[in-house]
Amino acid sequence: KGRDNMDSRVPLSVQEILSKYMSLFRERIPDTLEGLYLHGSIALNAYINGSSDIDFIAVIKRHLTDVELGILSEIHQDLISKYKTIMDGCYILKGEIGIRQNEIKKCISVNLGKVTWESDVINPVTWWILRDKGISIMGPEINSFDFEIDEDDLTNYVLNNMNTYWLNRMN
């Protein structure tokens, strides 16, 4: 365990960012953050300092107000200014962990410091990595959430993603 007893798989530079993030969140939007979980390159042991972003899912106790969404955006922009590293993820309620993409309404999404309402952040790959490799930073352990991942959904999502998103990036 590293800083604040974080999982040792989390690079020290990321531990510093996450500690600052949790401190800012608790200070500016108190009694709201219930859990913080990492997936993506950090969970897959493929994080590249200075290049990778920090993929996360934050569990919040309640929906945020419009004023709090503005504060949330400020928190993420402050972190980018200070650390030059992007936190990319979403904010959901506890009952939305593992929800199928076609079942979720849009959730609060953060990318490049901008807060928007999206549904594409929540996908079968996110849940698969979270369930099998995810890292609990705060809140209940991931294995305490009981959710299934439909293998057909996962396969279809990966094929579609390869033939659209990744194909476009290669051209």
Describe the structure.
The chain has 171 residues and is α+β, with helices and mostly antiparallel strands. The chain contains 4 helices and 6 strands. It has helices at 12-28, 66-83, 124-133, 151-170; strands at residues 33-38, 54-60, 87-93, 107-111, 114-118, 135-138. A hairpin with a 2-residue loop joins strand 4 (107-111) and strand 5 (114-118). It is globular. The chain starts with 11 loop residues before the first helix and ends with a helix. The mean pLDDT is 89.
Nearest-integer average pLDDT: 89
Lateral strand order in the biggest sheet: 5-4-3-2-1-6
The rounded distance between the terminal residues' Cα atoms is: 42 Å
Q: Provide the gyration radius in Å.
A: 16 Å
Q: Which oligomeric form is depicted?
A: single chain
Classification by helices and strands: alpha+beta
Strand portion, in percent? 15-25%
What share of the residues lie within helices?
Answer: 25-40%
Q: Main β-sheet, in a few words? A: 6 strands, mixed
Number of strands: 6
- Tally of separate helices: 4
- Output the helix-strand order: HEEHEEEHEH
pLDDT < 50 runs, ≥5 residues: none
Shape: globular
